[in-house]
Fold:
Amino acid sequence: MSVTIKKIAEISGVSRGTVDRVLNNRGKVSEAVERKVRETAQRLGYTPNMAGKALSIKKKEIVIGSVLPSEGNPFFYEIMRGMIVAANELSDYGVRLEIKKMRGYDPEKQERLIDEFSKRIDILLITPVDDDRIREKIDALAECGVPTITLNSDICDSKRVCYVGSDYFKGGEIACGMLAMATGGRANLGIIMGSSKVLGHSQRLDGFMKILRQRFPDIRVTGTTETEDDDIIAFDRTRKLLERYPQTNALFIVAAGVYGACRAVIDNGVDKDICVVTFDDVPSTVEMMERGLVRATICQQPFTQGYEAVKIAFDYYLGKKVPADGIVEIENEIKIMECF
Amino acid sequence: MSVTIKKIAEISGVSRGTVDRVLNNRGKVSEAVERKVRETAQRLGYTPNMAGKALSIKKKEIVIGSVLPSEGNPFFYEIMRGMIVAANELSDYGVRLEIKKMRGYDPEKQERLIDEFSKRIDILLITPVDDDRIREKIDALAECGVPTITLNSDICDSKRVCYVGSDYFKGGEIACGMLAMATGGRANLGIIMGSSKVLGHSQRLDGFMKILRQRFPDIRVTGTTETEDDDIIAFDRTRKLLERYPQTNALFIVAAGVYGACRAVIDNGVDKDICVVTFDDVPSTVEMMERGLVRATICQQPFTQGYEAVKIAFDYYLGKKVPADGIVEIENEIKIMECF
DNA sequence: TTGTATGCGTTATCAA
DNA sequence: TTGATAACGCATACAA
Structure:
């Protein structure tokens, strides 16, 4: 039979209330008693029973507040779907999810949205802009006892409790492996960056280049450009790249703007000869895959990211530990045409 | 606030016990009362609270009995690891997991192992041999109120509650896509079957051939052989295949025996020129991948299969519905060298 | 500083 | 055939 608060209370010769105070650091316990209780809890290997906790806290509502740069970004629709499914599964336990959406990555805007929650949330679940303003805000919330979990993007050197998302560096490595496989390890490659200011994009490129240098000397980089995650800009810049380096026969698209870049390839009339590798599988990318242009795409399991993030937030609220390194990695997923 | 048994009891003017008897079909309720209770439950949209259930059933031990052909099959080690992790997470709720291992696919042996559990289990979790004997056994258990969940392999036309595992046909399709990508869509292909008697293996081959015919006319099949999932046989037959059809420069290995087949390739001194696509990522396969022989492998997420199966078994015991089609698909996962 | 009582939603046991 | 009541493990308001 498992170890309960009741049992610990009996064995250490105190009341259940006292054990609860010790184990949840509510204070008002003499040092001697505290030591004794901790010792027995440790010795017996106490682990709190989730069902019991869940049932008892149900009297209160627990609010998960979320701020996402999801406006106009179909990738985030899947993340939100996962979050909502998880929240519904937890509605039994009094969980309520409140999502605030924003467009783009303006730190000031994001800070304002966080403030709008004020003290009404129990946990913050956020795709943070990498900015000191946000860093400080997260730390301030932590002081007030509101933990933050980052989703899809991390923000280092902050007091966030944990990060849920993919390993971007490894994603870049895998992308390189797939591009090499699709081209037979020999290509003239154009690189279409999203934004060199976005950490995840740079990490992907780093991973890609590492494998390229290490294993594929016959893949030459012709040119590089940036889309700023915008299809129109992507279209324009890709067209210019293809004009300037007509020998290009492969493209590595690091972030959003896949549709624009592919349209440029098609307009250029070279879609039969060009091999494209991308990230994520938003509908327009799948379309380009069915057309035979995109040969492989590396996905981040956005649904799983959202789903797991909410579940982890709740578990954390219930007192469950997060991984020691504060990272919950959602695996990169290779997809080719046959997967759809 | 959510709908509880208590609330239903109050509204329909009966006691909680009566509502419980109606909703859980325990009988001993007059028809009039039953109708009334069901009606209000329906009207209010009652959904049982999992935490409450979990807490309450803790008084009993719930036993999940499992029979797996895991003996000498490293693939199943991962499945068992997932099962054990899930069972530990559920130990709070009185879940106990009991695994019986067997070697190979003898239906008689399997039936005997199931019988050894007798009435001591609450759920059967099994990788069934596709045989009428087992089919009947599953149906008999269902009659006695012991539900069966199939894991990794399904057994059709039986009263099993649900199947947890991969889509083998789709796995074959994806394997073909990867092999085509790795060979540039042009190859002389040897096919190494596991056993044509195993349903999953045939399905993989069917999926593979479908895509091959549909999209890759320049991949020619030189020869086919069977390994019976044994490395020694695989070694021997592959060697003969390579001798008989020396033009072979690609291998599709449908099931176990990867290590044996690869050793034959290496012994033949042609490992630099042959492209191999396999299933699963047992240690010896990863080794062959690092050597550059195996170019891609399609995995079934065995850990997840085991983990999910146990969780689903428990949820089902608690009254949660399974998907309408009775299938919980665990996705195929493409892995290349860079994934490790 | 410590102990006791009550309730969360469900199931199970007795008594009626 | 029904109803009342006591668990399950935890949190908490209140009493001591």
Notes: Chain B has three domains: 5-47, 60-166+302-331, 168-299.
